[in-house]
Every structure is written in structure tokens, then in C-alpha cells.
Write a structure and sequence with these properties.
The chain has 124 residues and is of the alpha+beta class. The chain has two domains: 57 residues, no CATH class; 57 residues, no CATH class. It is 31% helix and 11% strand. The strands form two sheets. A two-stranded antiparallel ribbon has the order 1-2. Strands 3-4 form a two-stranded antiparallel ribbon. The longest helix has 14 residues.
């Protein structure tokens, strides 16, 4: 969730929050956070930054091999498709731990400017 998405902007403004975006920077809430929902950020008001995810339930796809959960430091520099391709190309001969590490290195090469975390979960 990003503060430059219209629905998030409206929710933040209704809660009394302020969104700013300076030149060459991303939109931020209260000049701090570049995401509009998060787990574990205790410094900002929970009305502004709730830990409420959007959830979508998909039918199980027999072709699905992985579930990938990652933070904005990754999604800021790679698309869903790029991450899926990166993981699937390495999955046959590389451990998930090493794939995750290599993907983080790739994001650094792509000049991510945010923190990064990723979970790659194999679907059995």
C-alpha cells in the first residue's frame, strides 16, 4: 500500500494525516513513511498506518509454484513478473534461501533506496 494511491490518500486524510512528496522522492505520510499500511511501526498513529492488509483469495492454480511476500524495497525496483521470473529461473538448482539473497543483491544493483525483506514459500 502506497500513500499516492487515491483510496489510501482519502483514508489518510479522513484520519487527519498529511501526505507530502518532495522532488525526487516518493510520497510519504507525515514526512516519514513511504507505505500506508505496515506491521510493527509503533511510532505513527495506527489510524494513519494500520496493520490491515488487503486480502484477495484466489483459487489454487496447479501451475503456482511459490508464494512471494516482500516489502516495498523490492517492489519499488522490480515488478511482480520480474520477481516471479527471477525466482522460477533459479528454483530448479538453487535453494530458496540463496534465491532470496540473490534477489536482494539484484535489488541493490537496481538502486533500491528502501529496506528489503522477502519470503519465498514453495507451494506443495
Amino acid at each position: 500500500h502506497k500513500p499516492d494511491v487515491v483510496q489510501e490518500q482519502e483514508r489518510i486524510h479522513r484520519a487527519g494525516g498529511r501526505i507530502t512528496q518532495y522532488e525526487n522522492d516518493v510520497a510519504r505520510i507525515e514526512d516519514k513513511l513511504a507505505v500506508s499500511r505496515t506491521f510493527g511501526d509503533y511510532l505513527l498513529d495506527k489510524r494513519l498506518i494500520p496493520a490491515l492488509p488487503d486480502t484477495i483469495q484466489y483459487p489454487k492454480n496447479p501451475l503456482a509454484a511459490f508464494v512471494i511476500l516482500a516489502c516495498d524495497g523490492i517492489w519499488d525496483v522490480m515488478t511482480n513478473e520480474q520477481v516471479a521470473l527471477f525466482v522460477s529461473q533459479k528454483a530448479s538448482n538453487t535453494s530458496l534461501e540463496n534465491i532470496a539473497s540473490q534477489l536482494l543483491d539484484q535489488c541493490l544493483k537496481l538502486k533500491t533506496s528502501d529496506n528489503m525483506s522477502i519470503y519465498i514459500i514453495k507451494v506443495l
